[in-house]
Amino acid sequence: MSGIIGIVLAFVAIGVGMVLKGASLTALINPAAYLIIFGGTAATIFIAFPMSELKKFPILLKIAFLEPKLPAKMDQIASLVQCAEVAKREGLLALEEIANNTTDPFFKKGLELIIDGNDIDFVEEVLFDEVEAIDKRHKTGALIFTQAGTYAPTLGVLGAVVGLVASLGNLNDVEKLGHSISAAFIATLLGIFTGYVLWHPLANKLKRISKREQEVKLLVIEGLLAIYRGISPSALEKKLTVHVAPKERSNSNKKNGDKGNE
Questions:
Q1: N or C: which end of the chain has fewer CB within 10 A?
Q2: Residue-wise over 161-181: b if at least 16 C-beta within 10 A, else e?
Q3: Is residue 209 part of a domain?
Q4: Does one domain contain both 63 and 78?
Q5: 160: closest CA among 184, 130, 132?
Q6: What phi and psi values does residue 101 have, to the nearest 5 degrees?
Q7: In angstroms, what CA-CA distances link 241 with 81, 88, 95, 237?
Q8: Are residues 63 and 95 in the same domain?
Q9: Rounded to the nearest 5°, which phi and psi values hold at 64?
Q10: Residues 254 and 151 reside in one and the same domain
Q11: pLDDT in tens, the chain (262 residues)
């Protein structure tokens, strides 16, 4: 949602800025500039990346704009503490019921590895390899937007050059010459705008979402390994809450307190 708000603000800022500078908004109606910038950027991306990765572009856009809701760290900690209580009271095999009921595939995979009695080093290796694979996939997705942001401003310069070449044919007509020069720089404006207001920020958004997701998964790994080692529920909670901001801890405690009062 914040991405949509940001883009709307950017359009408003550019539009109002042009009006304050005395530029006409009708100058933005330049099909050739849009074709050079958006068509050229698309072409560079098709050249730079295989189709198997480009197929994910619509999904990546959806993730960047809608910001999927990730599990809260305190909720994951609560689930891990519950697992520790069950393991302490009934043994590790009793975690099977929790594994069957969880909707988090990563959490479920970790519990199943423990329930199956795998060596703790093997469990740790598998889960960290999973996080590493996720990191690689996410970096590839963000790289598409980063590259688009790199190419777009340069294509804006190319569009300006094309426009100026066209304007040389109107040297005898001052009115057409001025219009041609103005249109030439619209391509530069679009290239810089899309590169630094659209593509690069979207790449950063994807990186931040990926980082938050990986932080939650690393928290789960730490909790599951501690449970496998037989840590007590209270000690596990203290161990994991150091990764949570104090404000989030207090908010979680308030919610739990309200539920207790009910």
A1: C
A2: eebeeebeeeeeeeeeeeebe
A3: no
A4: no
A5: 184
A6: -95, -20
A7: 11, 20, 22, 6
A8: no
A9: -65, -40
A10: no
A11: 677 888 889 889 888 988 888 877 887 888 888 998 999 999 999 999 999 999 999 999 999 888 888 888 899 999 999 999 999 999 999 999 999 999 899 999 999 999 999 999 999 999 999 999 999 999 999 999 999 999 999 999 988 888 787 777 766 766 667 667 777 788 899 999 999 999 999 999 999 999 999 999 999 999 999 999 999 999 999 999 998 888 777 665 555 544 444 4
| Neighbour tally for 51: CB within 10 Å | 7
Coil/strand/helix, residue 116: coil
Give yes or no: residues 84 and 119 share one domain: yes
Cβ contacts of 196 within 8 Å, gap of 6 or more: 149, 153
What is the rounded CA–CA span in Å between residue 235 and residue 195? 48
Residue range of the domain that includes 174: 2-69+141-188
pTM of the model: 0.82
